[in-house]
Fold:
Amino acid sequence: MEDNTIFYNTDKIKPFYAIKIFEKGKKIDPTGKNTIHLSLGEPASSLPKKLLDQVSKKLLKIKIGYTESIGLLELRNAIVKHYLNRYKIEINVGQVAVTSGASASILLSLLSLFKKGDTLAIVSPGYPCYSNILKALNIKVHIIYTNIKNNFDIEVSQIQKLPKYIKGIILSSPSNPTGATINKKLLQEINNICLEKNIIIISDEIYQGINYEIKSKEESLLSFNSNGIVINSFSKYFLMTGWRLGWIISNEDHIKEVSKLAMNLYLSPSSISQYTAIQTFNYYHYFDDIVKSYIRKRDFLIQRLPEIGFKKFFVPNGAFYFYIDVSNFTKNSYKFCEKMVEDINVTVAPGVDFDEKNGNSYIRISFAGSEKDLKEGINRIGRWL
Ligand SMILES: Cc1ncc(COP(=O)(O)O)c(C=O)c1O
Structure:
């Protein structure tokens, strides 16, 4: 009999090194007064005060209870409208599940679609939790390498050559750590090949809305593949990292499976966060202004990075990261980041998180924080190098 059991395998999970560096910064400087964190993808800005006041008033009047396992109907309806209004994409509410962050969306998708021994393709450099979760679930990982010379683009031939046993692929656009985006034509080509090869695409679109290139703006797998699995979140564009809320769009049958899993794993996503999230769709102008501030910080880094000695880096099309070649300075990106926080109280993320093969030559700087911190952090790094 086929053994479909999934045994969790935490031994195989590596730490998230960016978080280790972040925590080291907190340990060295517990008050946090002298430390500048450029390591995490965490927007400095908060939700608008007016929105928070509105939600607080509501929370005083209602009971904060569990919600449906896949989230409040009102929020799921708001997400349907969001796709229609912003992206002209029609979905129905049965295709939406609200989850505890995109992190839960990733886990629920993998648990519901794949089994122990399957192989999934992921892109490197990429978000480290994909390979860590896959390995923990005893799902095998096939890595598609991209590189700076090629603007971190996936090549169509890499998808064409995927072995027959590949069951799924996780795409992420805009990408963490590079900020590279998959343009419409390429996404369409990848989608066609995957449909032919019976490869399920999980498209992580958590940085949607944070785009700098008009041409590559706002692509969603949902535009061409109504059966694709799309993951998104309130963490980035909507500034709600700590509220822990994300969503999955998939076909209705799959959402039923996700619902069963969610109700057993964590009952429901946080109700307080959901009441808040419903209101965010009335504040696009506020979030779009924050994206404009990212454009200013991106321009600042394009100018300042070469001045302080970082000559080779990728200019992001989306998200809020610069992926920087530091091979002139180190052969070990984790040690480099450790020394940086010890010497000058600045945290950045080591490339080894994102790419096991070439990551020791890279660091990732996040420009999601405040302009003031970014300028001071970059000055300190410049003097230190
Ligand atoms: C590509 C990507 N996917 C998923 C996540 C997890 O996001 P969430 O805060 O919604 O769990 C992150 C967080 O940085 C990310 O960069």
